[in-house]
Design a protein that fits this description.
Layout (H helix, E strand, L loop, with lengths): L11 E5 L4 H12 L3 E6 L2 H13 L4 E5 L5 H15 L4 E4 L19 H4 L9 H29 L2 E6 L12 H21 L4 E8 L14 H9 L9 H12 L10 E4 L6
Parallel strand pairs: 1-2, 1-4, 2-3, 4-5, 5-6, 6-7
């Protein structure tokens, strides 16, 4: 029997980047906990398949193909969610992208990444910088801005931003990505302060090593993969469901006294 504080029956959750990987794991877990899910991604086929899976389990799911870096498309998807369900209780900002490369070329740099990524040891362009910031941070700004007024009127809401360990400690060759995820962690804390009096909790989750389509290249070299694994105290890589279960906690009444936090879900890697 589920503890009542974790039950999401009657709640409506928007999950961006829900088509695959961590986003799909979060959307699935929220649905299993009882929430109706608005699954958002650029690729419609992926979210339609996800919604079919949730509906087979007796859950409501609305697939919306949208670019969450567009204010117009974000406003439209929020409008569709409200039209379909009448409320929005949970927002998960998971849409993201990843860039690994040097900030400027480094002479005589020796790393297998230069063999895996053809443009690894090259200058980070303005276009790459803006793409990281827009996808990882601006998208969350837009969704929070669109959803916030509804949560404020409801006097309740849960916002969960998927940031990164790079927002807690630096990593080599992640500068543009880390800057965008650190901005997202800061947005989390600022909104937590501003919206606390309206009973809106804003938190973020910082994943560690998760093997997804965005990070697959990091796992191709066995020596590097083994070194990554050895750096994780719990000696395994993360699975999307690991994030999904923490998201259920942060989306539920069980976390009513938790706000403004960046929670590592990383097997102890941050230590």
């Amino acid at each position: 029997m589920m503890l009542d504080e974790f039950n999401l029956e009657g709640k409506v959750a928007i999950v961006t980047g829900a088509g695959r990987g961590i986003g799909r794991g979060i959307a699935t877990a929220l649905g299993e906990a009882g929430a109706s899910v608005v699954a958002v991604a650029r690729t419609e086929a992926q979210i339609r398949e996800l919604c079919s899976q949730l509906e087979r389990g007796g859950r409501s799911c609305l697939p919306i193909a949208a670019d969450v870096t567009s204010a117009e498309q974000v406003d439209a998807l929020v409008g569709r969610a409200l039209s379909q369900f009448g409320r929005i209780d949970i927002l998960v900002n998971n849409a993201g992208t990843f860039l690994m490369k040097t900030f400027v070329p480094i002479p005589d740099l020796k790393t297998h990444l230069a063999e895996v990524l053809s443009d690894f040891n090259m200058v980070t362009s303005e276009q790459e910088w803006h793409h990281q910031m827009d996808t990882n941070a601006t998208s969350a700004f837009l969704t929070c801005r669109a959803v916030g007024p509804h949560m404020i009127r409801q006097e309740s809401g849960k916002i969960i931003n998927i940031t990164s360990l790079d927002a807690i400690k630096p990593s080599r060759y992640h500068i543009a990505y880390a800057a965008s995820k650190t901005a997202l962690a800061s947005l989390t804390k600022q909104l937590a302060i501003e919206w606390a009096r309206h009973s809106i909790n804003v938190n973020s989750i910082a994943p560690g090593f998760y093997r997804t389509t965005l990070t697959e290249f990091s796992y191709r070299d066995e020596q590097t993969k083994d070194a990554m694994l050895r750096s994780v105290p719990l000696r395994r890589f993360g699975q999307p469901r690991d994030i999904g279960l923490v998201a259920v906690f942060l989306a539920s009444k069980a976390s009513d006294y938790v706000t403004g936090c960046v929670i590592p879900v990383d097997g102890g890697l941050h230590l």
